[in-house]
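Researcher: I've got a protein sequence and the SMILES for fe (ii) ion. Could you write out the 3D structure of the bound complex as structure tokens? I'd like something to compare against our soaking experiments later this week.
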Amino acid sequence: MEHPIKDFSHLIGKLDGMSVNQIEAHLGLYAGYVKKLNEIETKLQNADRALTNYSYGEYSELKRREAVAFNGAYLHQYYFENLTAETTTRSAELEGALVDSFGSIDAYLTDLKASATATPGWVVTTKSEVDGKLHNYMMFEHHIGFPVRQKIVLALDCWEHAFMIDYGTKKTDYLETFLRNVDWNVMNERLK
Ligand SMILES: [Fe+2]
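Model: Sure. Here is the predicted complex with fe (ii) ion in place.
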């Protein structure tokens, strides 16, 4: 299938603390991942399986980068989907799940920011099929470190490209900005 580039232009210039330049640059990178995903899938259709090789081979390289482009495309979808200029609130169900899983809302937010500070990749809040609780998991690049049996309910882009234009190296300020713009309604819905 041809993976679509979703239109998130409604966010440009609307988010508190995220400039037009920052969001436009980020949306451009997102579009690049979708294009690369489509390119990889197209090339894989004709790559010679007989030449697969651990060290190097066209097919093997395409397979090695397939998950990078795939997650690069779809993690960004999660991320832009869970941002909004509107004021939203957490549902009682979401707050109950966060308190049950982390002890308090503050403890969840503290853990989210601590995880985000420690990775140059992604942090995702998930609902685990294993214990039914919410967890924050840290990822590197787009594809390394994500545990299986998880449903993503929030995606937080921690790559420097997500904040360098507006915040330089002040990642802490970006994390507060992200939290001001989280669409809690989306998180409420994803949890259901
Ligand atoms: Fe990003």
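Model: Residues 92-191 form a domain with the minor pseudopilin epsh fold fold (CATH 3.55.40.20). The chain has two domains: 17-81, 92-191.
Researcher: Great, I'll pass this along to the crystallography team.
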